[in-house]
Amino acid sequence: MKNFITTILLSFVLLLTGCQGADTYQGTWKATGPNGKKVELNFEPKSFTVKDSTGKVSTYQYTQNSVKVENSVTIYGIQLGDGRVYRIFFPFANDISKGVIMFKNNEPIYTISRSSYITYKDLYKLEDWN
Protein backbone atom coordinates (compact mmCIF):
# COMPACT_ATOMS: atom_id res chain seq x y z
CA MET A 1 0.00 0.00 0.00
CA LYS A 2 2.86 2.37 0.87
CA ASN A 3 4.46 1.85 -2.60
CA PHE A 4 1.11 2.51 -4.25
CA ILE A 5 0.68 5.81 -2.40
CA THR A 6 4.28 6.80 -3.17
CA THR A 7 3.71 6.07 -6.88
CA ILE A 8 0.52 8.14 -6.94
CA LEU A 9 2.20 11.08 -5.19
CA LEU A 10 5.22 10.98 -7.52
CA SER A 11 2.90 10.84 -10.55
CA PHE A 12 1.01 13.87 -9.27
CA VAL A 13 4.23 15.83 -8.67
CA LEU A 14 5.42 14.90 -12.17
CA LEU A 15 2.22 16.26 -13.69
CA LEU A 16 2.45 19.51 -11.71
CA THR A 17 6.01 20.21 -12.81
CA GLY A 18 5.15 19.96 -16.51
CA CYS A 19 7.60 17.14 -17.14
CA GLN A 20 10.59 19.23 -16.20
CA GLY A 21 13.59 17.56 -14.62
CA ALA A 22 13.58 16.65 -10.95
CA ASP A 23 15.55 18.74 -8.47
CA THR A 24 17.41 15.54 -7.56
CA TYR A 25 19.59 15.56 -10.68
CA GLN A 26 19.56 19.25 -11.56
CA GLY A 27 22.88 21.02 -11.28
CA THR A 28 26.47 20.15 -12.15
CA TRP A 29 27.89 16.62 -12.34
CA LYS A 30 31.32 15.20 -13.06
CA ALA A 31 30.74 12.38 -15.54
CA THR A 32 32.92 9.56 -16.86
CA GLY A 33 32.07 7.54 -19.97
CA PRO A 34 32.76 3.82 -20.39
CA ASN A 35 35.90 4.70 -22.38
CA GLY A 36 37.21 6.90 -19.53
CA LYS A 37 36.29 10.16 -21.26
CA LYS A 38 35.51 12.87 -18.69
CA VAL A 39 32.84 15.52 -19.23
CA GLU A 40 30.87 17.93 -17.11
CA LEU A 41 27.07 17.75 -17.21
CA ASN A 42 24.76 20.52 -16.09
CA PHE A 43 21.04 19.77 -15.81
CA GLU A 44 18.50 22.59 -15.92
CA PRO A 45 14.72 21.98 -15.65
CA LYS A 46 14.22 21.38 -19.40
CA SER A 47 17.71 21.15 -20.90
CA PHE A 48 21.19 19.96 -20.07
CA THR A 49 24.67 20.68 -21.32
CA VAL A 50 27.66 18.44 -21.89
CA LYS A 51 31.05 20.16 -21.67
CA ASP A 52 34.00 18.08 -22.90
CA SER A 53 37.68 18.38 -21.95
CA THR A 54 38.33 20.89 -24.76
CA GLY A 55 35.60 23.22 -23.48
CA LYS A 56 33.12 22.40 -26.26
CA VAL A 57 29.54 22.62 -24.95
CA SER A 58 26.55 20.79 -26.44
CA THR A 59 23.01 21.55 -25.27
CA TYR A 60 20.08 19.10 -25.34
CA GLN A 61 16.40 19.67 -24.63
CA TYR A 62 14.64 16.97 -22.60
CA THR A 63 11.50 16.11 -20.68
CA GLN A 64 11.28 13.83 -17.70
CA ASN A 65 8.87 11.03 -18.57
CA SER A 66 9.05 8.69 -15.58
CA VAL A 67 10.08 8.22 -11.97
CA LYS A 68 10.43 4.87 -10.24
CA VAL A 69 11.31 4.44 -6.57
CA GLU A 70 11.80 0.97 -5.16
CA ASN A 71 13.54 0.19 -1.85
CA SER A 72 14.72 3.82 -1.74
CA VAL A 73 16.52 3.38 -5.08
CA THR A 74 15.41 5.94 -7.68
CA ILE A 75 15.34 5.84 -11.48
CA TYR A 76 14.31 8.85 -13.57
CA GLY A 77 13.42 8.49 -17.23
CA ILE A 78 14.18 11.35 -19.60
CA GLN A 79 13.47 11.77 -23.29
CA LEU A 80 15.56 14.07 -25.44
CA GLY A 81 14.03 16.35 -28.05
CA ASP A 82 15.28 14.02 -30.80
CA GLY A 83 13.48 11.02 -29.27
CA ARG A 84 16.38 9.29 -27.49
CA VAL A 85 15.43 7.85 -24.11
CA TYR A 86 17.77 7.65 -21.12
CA ARG A 87 17.58 6.67 -17.47
CA ILE A 88 19.23 8.44 -14.57
CA PHE A 89 19.81 5.78 -11.94
CA PHE A 90 20.75 6.35 -8.30
CA PRO A 91 21.64 2.81 -7.17
CA PHE A 92 22.20 3.40 -3.46
CA ALA A 93 19.32 3.92 -1.06
CA ASN A 94 19.05 7.51 0.10
CA ASP A 95 22.23 8.62 -1.71
CA ILE A 96 21.79 10.93 -4.68
CA SER A 97 25.42 12.10 -4.85
CA LYS A 98 26.46 9.46 -7.40
CA GLY A 99 24.71 7.48 -10.09
CA VAL A 100 24.60 6.29 -13.67
CA ILE A 101 23.06 7.66 -16.84
CA MET A 102 22.18 4.83 -19.19
CA PHE A 103 20.39 3.99 -22.37
CA LYS A 104 16.93 2.50 -22.07
CA ASN A 105 18.51 -0.98 -22.43
CA ASN A 106 20.56 -0.34 -19.24
CA GLU A 107 23.85 0.19 -21.06
CA PRO A 108 25.81 2.87 -19.16
CA ILE A 109 26.65 6.14 -20.88
CA TYR A 110 28.10 8.06 -17.94
CA THR A 111 28.87 7.42 -14.30
CA ILE A 112 28.08 10.63 -12.45
CA SER A 113 29.20 12.14 -9.17
CA ARG A 114 28.76 15.56 -7.59
CA SER A 115 32.32 15.61 -6.25
CA SER A 116 34.73 13.57 -8.43
CA TYR A 117 35.15 11.65 -11.65
CA ILE A 118 34.39 7.97 -11.02
CA THR A 119 34.14 4.97 -13.32
CA TYR A 120 31.23 2.55 -13.52
CA LYS A 121 33.40 -0.16 -11.99
CA ASP A 122 34.43 2.12 -9.13
CA LEU A 123 30.85 3.20 -8.44
CA TYR A 124 30.02 0.00 -6.62
CA LYS A 125 33.36 0.00 -4.78
CA LEU A 126 32.27 3.28 -3.17
CA GLU A 127 29.51 1.56 -1.24
CA ASP A 128 30.64 0.57 2.25
CA TRP A 129 30.02 -3.19 2.48
CA ASN A 130 31.25 -3.55 6.09
What does this structure look like?
This protein is α+β, with helices and mostly antiparallel strands and 130 residues long. The protein has one domain (2-115): Glycoprotein, Type 4 Pilin, CATH 3.30.700. Helices cover 16% and strands 44% of the residues. The protein is built from 2 helices and 8 strands, in the order αββββββββα. An 8-stranded antiparallel beta barrel has the order 1-2-3-4-5-6-7-8. It is globular, with a radius of gyration of 15 Å. Mean pLDDT is 85; it is low at 11-18.
Biggest sheet: strand arrangement: 1-2-3-4-5-6-7-8
Summed up, the helix count is 2
Question: Outline, from the CA principal axes?
Answer: globular
Helix and strand pattern? HEEEEEEEEH
How many angstroms does the end-to-end distance come to? 32 Å
Q: State the name of the first-level CATH class.
A: Alpha Beta
> Please, what is the average pLDDT?
85
Whole-number tally of structural domains: 1
Contiguous low-pLDDT stretches (5 residues minimum) are: 11-18
Described by strand count, sense and barrel closure, the largest sheet is:
8 strands, antiparallel, barrel
Helix content: 10-25%
Structural class based on helices, strands and sheet pairing: alpha+beta
